[in-house]
Amino acid sequence: MAFFRNLGCSLMGALGKNWSGLSSTSYEMTCSKFLSQQLRTFIQMRTVLKVVDNSGAKKVMCIQALKGKKGARLGDTIVASVKEAMPNGKVKKGKVVYGVVVRAAMQRGRCDGSEVKFDDNAVVLVDKQGQPIGTRVFGPVPHELRKKKHVKILTLAEHIA
User: Quick check: 36 and 106 in contact, CB under 8 A?
Assistant: First the structure.
């Protein structure tokens, strides 16, 4: 937390020297608001994602987003490396896999004007043809995956948001 506080102080100091009159709580709110905005970005290289299927992997790290220059969003396919895995799973630690982003902390607008965003970044592992490796998908999955042609993931999901 001290690192983030110093980061916030240097950023606030760069904006102007007249912020010393801020109370501690408003300063904390400003820093937390700034940091939450910084953490809500595209899924890019070296982003660690949670795996929400029963393929055996627990966490993966993004190597490359297959679409877009900035990074991956909801429904995009990524190439990832398995960082944590269960001992008896189909996928082992260190294996390079494909995955579809099913939950992203970055908000995405919907056609009706509402926006959807999740608390974490999560992925479902798929093979090269786009078929899921696991047989179950845990947690909510947005219905935007239907437009991206990932209907099989939607059928395996327990809750569609």
Answer: no
Class at the top of the CATH hierarchy for domain 48-160:
mainly beta
Cα(79)–Cα(122) distance, integer angstroms: 13
pTM: 0.71
Contact 61, 47 (CB under 8 A): yes
The tokens of 112 are what? 């009706």
74-104: per-residue pLDDT in tens? 889 999 999 999 999 899 999 999 999 999 8
Calculate the CA 130 to chain-centre distance: 19
Q: Is the dihedral of CA 41, 132, 146, 128 positive or negative?
A: positive
CB atoms within 10 A of CB 4: 13
The type of residue at 38 is: Q
What's the pLDDT tens digit per position in 18-54? 444 444 455 455 444 444 444 567 888 899 999 999 9
